[in-house]
Amino acid sequence: MHSTLPHRADIDGLRAVSILLVVGYHAQLIPGGFIGVDVFFVISGFLISHIIITQAGNGNFSFIAFYSRRIRRIFPALVVVLIATYLLGWIILLPGDLTLLGENIAAGVAFVSNLFQLSQLGYFAPAEAENPLLHLWSLGIEEQFYIVWPPILLMIFRSKHRRLWIATIAAASFAVSLLIFFGYKDRSFYSPLSRAWELLAGGMVADWYIDRTKQQRPAARSQDLFATIGLAAILVAALWLKTDSLFPGFYALLPVVGAALIIVSPESRINSRLLSIRPMVFIGLISYPLYLWHWPLLSYLGIVRNGVPTVIEVWLAIILAFVLAWLTYRFIEIPIRRQKRAVLKLSLGLASVGVVGLLTVAASGFGFRFSPEIREIASLASYSNGGFKNKCFLEAPGSRFSSDCIEPGSKPLLFLWGDSTAAAFYSGLKNAEAIFPFRLALFAAPGCSPILTNKCEKTNTLAFEYLQSSSPQTVLLHAMWDRTDDLEKLRETIARLKALNVPRIVILGPVPVWKRTLPQTLVNFYRLRHVVVERIKAGVSGTENDERMENFSRSVGVEYISAWHMLCDSSGCRTRVGPTADDVVTTDIVHLSNSGSNFLAQAVGKILFPDTEVNDSKGN
């Protein structure tokens, strides 16, 4: 690479800024650190375009030599990291997750990871933290650029309007990235068409840089100004942007323009006194293997630690990534680049890794690695609770609120009103009718706490009308009850219920909320202990919301039943109510399974109907 461009230590330092931002983002230290990738794109576009333009001008550009250098630069560390990631996945990942890893490996080897991710969850989705090779999307974009850009640049090389052509192509790419404002967020993020302008920004800088002698470049004072503005733009973006920002789009101009301004200012004090110092240059030199290593380590750490690794563990993973990056650079990358037949060996090695990925997909993740019991738990389907199919839950097919949501009969009416967690609780209450003397009504809507004047006002108003006409003996209000619920508006709803002279108003508190799904959590603990634990304390929350709702219930003078205390104690939260996979309490992060609902319903029934005898071990 440096055969056509004298070594610039400041560019290595800019690489260091990029990778430190990315690592800081993945370690949840820098909210907008993901913009470090955009800085990488500008650097890559500058260096690659500089090589092509310079060598084409000298008449010695060779596609074979160009792509050979790319293979020697990219393949060694990639092969090593892919092998290590797969071996860890073999130990850690469930069959379904290992299958997904195999797909990611195959996509990574083919350098189409960015296109593969379009069929997955968005980059900022929480569940993507469990994808150890998610970060290969950026490598895919760079490689696609390396394939398409050299022939295009050579076609326009002799044109007097070469720079205008580059600017026009970049502008068209930028226009595509603006589709993010029309709902195409993932396409704008992953598509090479919407990202090419960032690499082309580096290309325009290279074209300008080559045409200027040292004397024609901006004066030192101007370079100081440019570099200061550039670094400020990058830091502002890193600290200001967040995962919910519409990115890339216009926001990407900050890191892209910032990187370009720094590159055109090699003699500025920022470049010479900050970016060119030895530690920054060192980090820049290992930035590529560091990028490859850090994310699989952090991802696997999150999986094994159930989404809640400690600060010390995160820092240890980062330190390990630095060590592995240096070892890879010193003992893998440098020696292999000097080997005569390295290109063929590296190509065969990477292709072999891709074949392993495809075989893993074909074998459905080699399920024999785990016991049948843990495989059954891992394969539990979310939303398998029977209450989600009830037509009085407004997410079920053909659902609507009607008088059919109220069971006929002469027994006292228990009116269940709430959100999807109430629908999950319904199946247990339905079974509890065989034990306790009541009939049941269900009025539930996803994301709708039973509060009259909130975002679900129309739905809840209709539920309230049926409540008013049915004269229930007991109204049971149940929801996730988190900080988004307006308790003052709930207070008003309670007042209106009291005005109806409802004999008994009961608030059922929130059920535990798991950081990851409960089946995943059980699997994570199984990896370490080789036993399906009965209670788990880490990676579950809800006690604060339980206390908040209990205090509220006391203040408005209604009964409160703590689901938290029925499912959790000082040793942790209950994971199963029986020996089989179907006895797992929760199927996702919050919704009860049928067994979990039965368990909670019998416990609640004992409070609502204390004079009824219960003879069921799962209710004790």
How would you explain this protein's 3D organization?
There is one protein chain. The protein is mainly α and 620 residues long. The protein folds into two domains: 9-369, no CATH class; 386-514 and 541-572 and 594-619, SGNH hydrolase (Rossmann fold, 3-Layer(aba) Sandwich), CATH 3.40.50.1110. Helix content is 58%, strand content 6%. The strands form three sheets. It has a five-stranded parallel sheet, with helices on both faces. Helix 2 packs across helix 9. The longest helix is centred in the first third of the chain and has 30 residues, at 63-92. It is elongated, with a radius of gyration of 30 Å. The termini are far apart. The model is unreliable at 616-620 (pLDDT under 50).
Provide the descriptors you would attach to this structure in a database record.
620 residues; mainly alpha; Rossmann fold; 2 domains; 3-stranded antiparallel beta sheet; 24 helices; 58% helix; 6% strand; elongated
